[in-house]
Structures are given as structure tokens and as C-alpha cells.
UniProtKB/TrEMBL annotation:
Pfam families per record: AAA_16 (PF13191)
Domain Orc1-like AAA ATPase: residue ranges: 21-230
Keyword Transferase: no
Lineage: superkingdom: Bacteria
The UniProt record lists the keyword ATP-binding: yes
Keywords: ATP-binding, Nucleotide-binding
A single GO molecular function term of this UniProt record: ATP binding
Name listed for the protein in its UniProt record: ATP-binding protein
InterPro entries, A to Z: AAA_16, P-loop_NTPase
Amino acid sequence: MPPSRVNAAWLQPISTDPGLLVNREEELDDLVRRLDELREAQLRDAHFLITGARGVGKSIFTRAALARFEQKFPDHAVCLTVDSRGLRYRPFLNRFANALVEGIKPRAERFKRLGIARVLEQLALFANHSQINRTQTDTISRRYGADATLGADLLLKLQSKLTWEETRSVGQTVQLSLTVTDELLHAAITATLERLAEDDSRWMVVVFFDDLDQALPTDHEEDVAMLFRHVLDLRPCISLVHFRTEALVENVAREATEKIDLKPLTSEVLFELVRRRLEAATETVRKQFPLDTDWSAVHRLAACTGNPLVFLKWVHGLMRSQLWPPLESWKDPGNLARLVFTADPFNGADPELVRRLAETVDRCDGGRPQATLLREDLLRGCAKTDPGKAPGLTEQETDDLVKLQVLLPKHRFQPTLGYRMQPVLDLLRPSVRDKL
């Protein structure tokens, strides 16, 4: 069959669909087993830290584990996912509160747990309004009336934190309003979780805080640690927190009661990612890949990384930048550069500067994958122990590459500890090209 262009959208390099997870059975069974042990012991307060390198599959793994756990115990487990990326504290609280209401309130009404339903409706009022008036709370109280005990009233649980203010008079009627502060909403969520942990509640709440390390756009370590501390105070519940390894700081790691670290995948498993996605693609897409399709280029790419996101981006870039099946010339430096910049434009970084960076990195780390790069080595052009001489990067070029996120700090808040190059760029390194 002559070479032709194919549509590569079916690869989904960035995907959190649990159905596309491949070969994490050991870790999945381990996490589901740990959750089941908590369920059997009727424990409702634990914190799991899901860590691993960027792109190793933390989100898709955790979502798959929670889907499996909820399917195994549909009458007890309520598994929620709160996407925290780019959120400041208040929007994060709003999203968590609404997820809690959406996940449990329909079940509470179906099983006639009206006391819990009442608390959840009151929580929704707090989450979706910056200011509420007495009329709104009275409406909820009348709706449930005698069917829900006063002990199920969120306002009574929070009465020491409520400050009603007279806002205006309508005729002879005084209207009272209440400002919903961050502290009040946090307390309302906590009180709701406490109600859900009582003996008459049938549900175990498991919450996945996805991308929590990217929730607060700040450069201060203490702010992220404080946010994490606030999240842990939203208890009792079983929480799972996704943290990239490079963002993990010591005081965050100490807070977790359990930790699961995801490792890279083998080349055989990486190819299975492509096969699994092709099976899920449309018939039109599958027809472009007959049984005798030459997948040697994909196998070669799989042998150069253990990171599923990096691998899928490479394959996606290869299919978009080359005819398919690709000619042997796809391994030429120019074609590899086109591949990686098709896979990721790197925020508009200069291709020539990026190529020089990749070659400098190869000299600095001796071909070791994702090794830490010291700034002085990048400026020197080689490691201190390397007797060879080669032009390095300038201070300005290094700063530009960090700003464009081509160079990533090893430690999010202490860049002086060194950098790592975006792993998608590894194909531009001479030592990696030789493996192809």
C-alpha cells in the first residue's frame, strides 16, 4: 500500500478515560484493596497521595480505580472527582461542594434519607451564592419540614459561625442576609461530611482531587502547602490527591497517610496503548490500518521512553508530520524536529534554540533520561567533569526556556536545585536518536 496521510485524533495523547488505562492491574488492585479495607473497618478518614512523573498516568489511573471501587460497592461507595487545575481556593470549594451535592443528594432522596438531603440542599445554597437571605433558608426548612430532624439542619451546626445582618426593610418586614465567606463554606462542607459519616449514613465518600498541585497559580511554596492543609481539613472523607513528583514538597508528603507512586511502563505496554485506542476508534479510522500495517516506527518510539504521555505525543506527531507508513527517513534529525514540534509547539519556542538545548542536555547528563541539569552546566555547555568544550546557553536563553516551560524546575519552588528538559524533546538528543 502506498504511503498516505492518516487522521491521528483517535490517539488521544491526553486522556483521563478510565477505559483506556492499560497494564496498571497491580497498582489498581492495591488501591481498590486499600479502599475496601477502609470500608470494612468503617473508617471514613484517610488521605492517599498519588505521585509520579508528569505524564505517567496519575489521573487516568485514579479515575479507573475509583470507577472499579464504585462498581464493586454501588450501594456504599460514592466516588467524586474534583478537577482542581487552575482554581483558586474559593472556586475550588464551590466545585467540591457541588460535586458532593450532585453525587449524594439523588441517592439520599431515593433511599428516603431526607435529613441528609436537607443538609445537602443547604450546602448547595452556600456553594452557589456569595450572599444568602433568611427567606432562602426558610424555604428549604419548609420543604423538608417534620420529615427531617433539626439535627440535620446545617444552619444549626454552623450557628456559632453565622452572622445575620439586616440589609433592607420591605414595608414592615426586615430582611436578613448572610455573607458566605471562605471560612463559612469550608465549615459547611466539613459539617456535611461529618453528617455523612454518622452511623445512619450508608455511604462512604471517596474524593479524588485531580491536579491539586496546579490549583493555585502562585510561586510560593507556603501557599500550596496551606492549600493542601485546607484540603486535608475537609474531613472526614477518603481523599486521593494527585501530585506530580517535581511539585511534591516535604511538608506535603508528610500529611498523607498512604502513598502510591506510579512507575514508567514497558515498551510492550506502551504499544498496547496505541492498539487499545485504535480498537476504540471509528471503523473509518481502523480501515486505514490493515492487518499488515508496518508498526516498526511505533515500536522504535516505544523503546525510547517509559512515559505513556510522551510516547503517545510522539506517535501523534509522527502520524501528523509524515506519510503513513513512514519512510525510513522519518528518523532524520530534520524529520524528528518536525515530529516533536508537531506533537507539542512548546509555547512558540525557537526550534533552533530548542535543538541546541537538547544537544547541550545530552552532553550535560551523559545520556541519562530525565537527569537533573544544573544551570551552570547548561551555561558551560557540558558537565563540570567533562573535559570537552562546547558552546552552552546564555543566561537569557536559559531564562527564556524556563519561561516557556521547555525547561522544568526539578523542584517547583526551588529552581536553583536544577532543571529537567521537557521529555517530549528527548528525540532531539543524539543519544536517543541512536536508539532508533
